[in-house]
Design brief:
Number of domains of chain B: 3
Oligomer: heterotrimer
Largest sheet of chain B: 5 strands, mixed
CATH topology of the largest domain in chain B: Nucleotidyltransferase, domain 5
Number of domains of chain C: 3
Distance between the termini of chain B: 41 Å
CATH architecture of the largest domain in chain C: 3-Layer(aba) Sandwich
Shape of chain B: globular
Strand order of the largest sheet of chain B: 3-2-1-4-5
Radius of gyration of chain C: 21 Å
Largest interface: A-C, 41 and 46 residues
Largest sheet of chain C: 4 strands, parallel
Order of helices and strands of chain C: EHEHHEHEHHHHEHHEHHHEHEH
Structural class of chain B: alpha/beta
Chains: A alpha/beta, B alpha/beta, C alpha/beta
Number of strands of chain B: 13
Chain lengths: ~325, ~325, ~350
């Protein structure tokens, strides 16, 4: 049996967990290729026009998997139990969006439901999948535990590596505040990371800050922000703000949570140069290089002025 | 004496008039610029139409008005039908092309798709919000490029490799356009890219979830742009019909509706010599400040409208 | 003795009447009704809001500013299961940055599974609060909302066929004015019954098979006529029965979550968030009942309602029922809406005519 996984949305956060899990169940996994122009275009055709760019890209990836696998893995994730741990409603709706969009295209879904408030946690959701996959209880549990372990190892090593970079890197350090599915997408975040490196700056990725730590620090900036991912990003800003030279808020148009969360950041994190990048499609991101370059110039001018002022005192 | 019906389609840019007989045959037609003055434009239209048909054998027995100034012109011409332009266009097209299944229409401010089964409109959709896939988008981009919008289609056809342009949102499109021009894309590729972007945007927004079946008729101001027509054919894989008289479809359609309904009201071309004054005032009844329009004929109030509530209504003042 | 609070809540249809009752009778606060919404409300709200946030956020902000100008010192925000859950905190921040010295009762701080926490939030502002008094007033408020919703439901179905122009609107205004003066539940019961009789006594001339249009969509924009440019009224006045299930009574007091999910299983297996399930279920019901068309209303970018659209498109295709989609932001102009509604009405008439003769 071949499981297809769209390389979009939650894949960028959970790829290690998902892939390890299926591999230990002896299932073949096909991940769709990196986002390219064709995927973007097809996503635009499949999706409702007003849907956010990230979800359009997702549907492009799903379509690219049709005919290449037996089941397409589309989890539903609503929340992880506590009040502040909800996700954008997009992730609640995903399986039904996919099945309605592709209903005449012979798609078969492998879905699971993570809804902590309805006592459906990640473990129980993964365990339930064994029925559709024809696997034994113990084997599934074992695969999940191994996958969790692998996920933890990967996250820790990414966080440590970034902490090292934050301490050691020369030149400007810019914190990229954006959802993992935007930052790591080849078409949305890819060019931005690339330009920044080409310009000699070090991108620090908010998503890689230790998540528990970030989440606990979020409360310093917001009391009612409901979305887990945005809380982590907010906390990551709090964690790194003394160590970076500027913030880049990266969002995909018209992201619901970001439309409010970015505004709170802009209003509550003062003193750091901030660039707001709203991406509608790769073509729309044209000129991003120019904007990044001028942003870096401005930071340079500000720092030079500050140094001069300090010297004259 | 035979009955004839006059249809007037008055938009912000152009004014169109068609006179048809009982068999929906066009007896006379005229097309001119509105130039921001619909009343004056209609007077000119009437003067011109008057000389284009045979008054000895035909008499105009009813008038229909459509287009954005339909209410005003309907009052002045004592129209029996004041219809929105979507219905007028649909009726006009299905009368001319009884086999049509899909109508694409892209005008200055909005775009729509109309689906037809057995000559009856069964579904339609319009652009939800922004002007990205419309004529005004192309017009503003043409100014940016320094090319007359009329030349767009011809230039687009010379491109071998249309530049991809993000056209979902005008703001994004403009910055993208500037960028693409600066990094060295040729003008014809950019123009072809714009035409393609209009089509992509149209199909992704207006045409979303609609089953597109031929025959397709493409109308509205942008249908004159052969670059867009070709892009439609490429995207749908179907031939796209553009009626050379497509700009008259709205006027024709509302004339057909008038004929079908059968109501009659005497019409006099002498109207063209009368004096009509329209006055716009802002109602101060509440913070909405509704703009109230009053129309006077030779000093006498004909009608008033524009208020959202009862406060501002005064049909006598 | 502490000064009496002047509390306000953004306009939401005409629900300001029961809200005012709750504030005055239950919470012992004065209530400032925001000035009627206008272009200025929208302009103020848009000016100080983030660019691509949903329209209700901007409208609420505009209402707050206008109510503060009118003397309000305490603002109420509800919280909710979508972006609404974060409205209050950002509204408060924006208003503070603008220099307004006001207090905020942000119910997003409360916990929905523990009703007592709502009381706690109010108690922060008014320490003298009495629980029995609040509960009593709350019950009357709920009945008031129910009586308004029942009347509006009847009006939507009949106003298009009234014999005397404006008869329903006049009586409705009367009804709301009387509701505002109610003091007890008994009085309310009498009043509501009496007015319902009077609504039903208004002469209407309905054709045997009138056009029937169902309205579905996003919570705020569908229930707030100002936000949706009075679409229901416009549609009804062309001569149609307009039906809408979504209102406070049905969604908040009597929400049949299990039934809804069961009925739409063929189209959606999971809860897709916020109002999307109700939207889908009602659309399906209108389709099955042979309505002539459906109007879907939402604010631009509303994620749950956008996600319901692929399902609506499938329902539209399966039952051959046309759906007109509206997406509002704070800049949408009136004229285009009127044209679309007229065309939709014409199309439904033509389809009905063709079905009758064919």
């Amino acid at each position: 049996m071949i499981i297809g996984i769209p390389r979009a949305l939650l894949y960028h956060r959970y790829h290690c967990l998902w892939e390890t899990f299926f591999e230990h169940l002896n299932l073949q996994v096909v991940v769709s290729r990196e986002t390219d122009k064709a995927i973007l275009e097809r996503g635009g055709v499949c999706a409702i026009d007003e849907a956010c760019l990230s979800s359009k890209i997702y549907l492009g990836h799903v379509e690219s998997l049709l005919g290449r696998c037996d089941l397409v893995f589309v989890p539903r994730v609503s929340n992880f139990g506590q009040r502040d741990n909800i996700l954008c409603t997009k992730f609640e709706a995903l399986p039904d969006i996919v099945s309605n969009t592709f209903r005449h295209r012979g798609i078969k879904l492998l879905d699971c439901n993570i809804d902590g408030r309805q006592s459906e946690n990640e473990l129980s959701a993964f365990m339930l999948m064994r029925k559709k996959l024809g696997k034994k209880r113990f084997q599934t549990f074992y695969a999940y535990m191994l996958a969790k372990q692998a996920e933890k190892l990967e996250q820790d090593s990414l966080a440590r590596e970034q902490e090292r970079r934050l301490e050691e890197a020369e030149g400007l350090k810019l914190l990229i505040v954006g959802h993992s599915y935007n930052v790591y997408d080849k078409f949305i975040g890819g060019p931005i990371l690339h330009y920044l490196k080409a310009l000699g700056a070090t991108p620090i990725i908010a998503d890689r800050v230790d998540r528990k730590r970030a989440l606990s620090r979020a409360a310093e900036l917001t009391s009612t922000m409901p979305w887990l991912f945005n809380r982590e990003l907010t906390g990551a800003v709090q964690e790194c703000r003394e160590k970076v030279d500027g913030l880049i808020l990266l969002s995909a148009f018209p992201c619901g949570p970001d439309s409010l969360a970015n505004e709170i950041l802009l209003r509550r994190v003062s003193g750091l140069p901030t660039l707001n990048l709203l991406v509608d499609s790769q073509e729309g991101a044209a000129g991003i290089e120019t904007r990044l370059e001028s942003f870096i110039d401005i930071i340079g001018f500000r720092q030079a002025a500050k140094t001069a002022k300090e010297a004259s005192l | 004496m035979n009955k004839a019906y006059l249809g007037i389609d008055i938009g912000s840019i152009s004014t169109k008039g068609v006179i048809i007989d009982g068999q929906n045959r066009i007896l006379a037609s005229e097309y001119l610029w509105t130039e921001g003055n619909p009343v004056q434009a209609v007077k000119k239209l009437l003067l011109s139409l008057r000389g284009k048909f045979d008054p000895a054998s035909y008499a105009v027995t009813a008038v229909g008005a459509t287009g954005s100034a339909r209410r005003l012109i309907g009052v002045i011409t004592r129209a029996t039908e004041v219809k929105n332009e979507i219905t007028a266009h649909a009726v006009g097209t299905t009368t001319l092309y009884p086999e049509v299944r899909t109508i694409f229409e892209i005008g200055g401010q909005d775009s729509k798709i109309i689906l037809v089964e057995n000559g009856v409109v069964v579904d339609y959709a319009m652009n939800t919000l922004c002007a990205a896939g419309t004529g005004s988008f192309l017009a503003s981009q043409s100014r940016r490029l320094g090319v007359a919008v009329e030349d767009f289609g011809r230039i687009a056809l010379t491109s071998q490799n249309p530049t991809p342009i993000a056209a979902r949102c005008t703001v994004f499109a403009e910055s993208d356009l500037v960028h693409k021009a600066q990094i060295g894309h040729s003008r014809e590729d950019i123009i072809a890219g714009l035409c393609k972007a209009v089509v992509t945007n149209y199909l992704n927004n207006v045409g979303k979830g609609k089953k597109i079946v031929g025959p397709i008729v493409f109308q509205g101001g942008v249908s004159k742009n052969v670059g867009v027509t070709k892009a439609f054919e490429a995207a749908t894989g179907l031939p796209v019909i553009v009626d050379p008289n497509g700009h008259l479809t709205g006027a024709f359609g509302v004339a057909v509706i008038v004929g079908r309904k059968g109501a009659e009201r005497p019409f006099d071309f002498g109207l063209a010599e009368m004096e009509f004054v329209t006055k716009g005032t802002n109602c101060d009844g509440c913070a909405n400040h509704c703009e109230i329009i009053r129309v006077y004929q030779n000093g006498e109030l004909l009608d008033a409208w524009g208020n959202k509530c009862e406060k501002g209504v005064s049909r006598t003042r | 003795m502490t000064k009496k609070r002047k509390v306000t809540f953004p306009h939401f249809g005409d629900y300001c009447v029961p809200i005012e009752y709750l504030m005055r009778q239950g919470l012992d606060m004065d209530y400032v009704t925001p000035p009627p919404m206008s272009k200025r409300t929208l302009e103020l709200g848009s000016k100080y809001s983030p660019d691509y946030v949903c329209a209700p956020f901007k409208i609420h902000l505009g209402c707050y500013i206008e109510a503060i100008e009118k003397g309000a010192d305490t603002l109420l925000q509800t919280g909710g299961v979508c972006r609404l859950g974060f409205y209050g905190e950002l509204h408060e921040q924006i208003l503070r940055d603008l220099g307004y010295q006001v207090d905020f009762i942000n119910l997003a701080m409360a916990n929905y599974s523990k009703p007592y926490t709502f009381y706690r939030e109010f108690k922060k502002i008014n320490p003298d609060l009495s629980l029995p008094k609040v509960s009593g007033a709350l019950l009357t408020t709920i009945r008031m909302v129910e009586s308004m919703d029942a009347a509006d439901d009847y009006i939507r179905r009949n106003i298009g066929f009234e014999q005397e122009e404006g008869a329903f609107d006049r009586l409705r205004a009367d009804f709301l004015n009387s509701l505002a003066l109610v003091e007890s539940q008994k009085e309310l019961r009498y009043l509501a019954g009496n007015y319902m009789k009077r609504f039903k006594a208004i002469p209407v001339l309905k054709p045997k098979r009138p056009l029937r249009v169902g309205v579905v969509g996003e919570y705020y924009s569908v229930m707030d006529p100002f936000s949706n440019h009075y679409i229901e009224r416009e549609m009804a006045k062309m001569g149609a029965v307009v039906a809408r299930w979504m209102n406070i009574s049905n969604s908040l007091f009597h929400y049949p979550k299990k039934e809804i999910q069961a009925r739409i299983r063929g189209y959606a297996r999971y809860n897709m968030g916020a109002t999307s399930m109700a939207t889908i279920e009602r659309a399906l019901r209108f389709a099955k009942k042979g309505y002539d068309g459906i109007i879907h209303i939402k604010s631009f970018g509303c994620t749950p309602e956008t996600d319901a659209m692929p399902v609506l498109q499938n329902i539209s295709a399966d039952y051959k029922i046309p759906i007109l989609y509206f997406s509002f932001d704070s800049q949408t102009a009136d004229a285009g809406i009127q044209t679309r509604l007229e065309a939709f009405y014409d199309m439904m008439t033509m389809r009905k005519g063709a079905a009758a003769t064919g």
